[in-house]
Amino acid sequence: MVPCDFRSVVPLPRGFGSMVPCGFGSMVPCGFGRVVPCDFSVVVPRGFGGVVPCGFGIVVPCGFGSMVPCGFGGMVPCGFGSVVPCGFGGVVPRGFSSMVPCGFGSVVPCGFGRVVPCDFSVVVPR
After folding, report:
1. CB within 8 A of 113, min separation 6: which ones?
2. Cβ contacts of 52-59, under 8 Å, gap ≥ 24
3. Would you say the C-alpha torsion 10, 98, 25, 121 has a positive or negative sign?
């Protein structure tokens, strides 16, 4: 089921119980229960899960440590034990203190110097 509150195309990724809701302010669960709040349309290709950043129609191919271009030129590593920089012009363009979960026991630098440790299952509310 893909609940949408705005027009966007969101294919379901192949993985472990992954779901990809879409639209403005929706949540994008991917892989092992990791959740990423998203703005605007998001496209999540097939993969093993990993981190699913979102933003202005970004295509996010997640896998084992692959690099993902996102936002306004930032790079996002996804998979296990990866580090995800975000914030202004980064992964989730929804302000200056965005938060993005990642892998297992990884560190997620967000916004301007904010650090958010993440674990097996992380939920970041909008």
Report:
1. none
2. 52/20, 52/28, 52/78, 53/78, 53/84, 53/86, 53/91, 53/92, 53/100, 54/28, 54/91, 54/92, 55/91, 55/92, 55/93, 56/93
3. positive
Closest Cα partner for 47 from 37, 35, 61, 27? Answer: 61
Q: Which amino acid is at 109?
A: P
- Element holding 30 (H helix, E strand): strand 26-30
**Each residue's pLDDT tens digit, 58-84:** 444 443 333 333 333 334 444 333 344
Which residue has tokens 């110097």? Answer: 113
pLDDT tens-digit map of 33-42: 344 444 333 4
Say how many CA atoms lie within 13 Å of 94 toward its Cβ.
Answer: 20
Picking from 81, 66, 63, 59, the residue whose alpha carbon sits closest to that of residue 11 is: 59
Report whether 126 contacts 37 (CB < 8 A): yes
Residue 18 burial (CB count, 10 A):
22
Residues forming a β-bridge with 69: 75
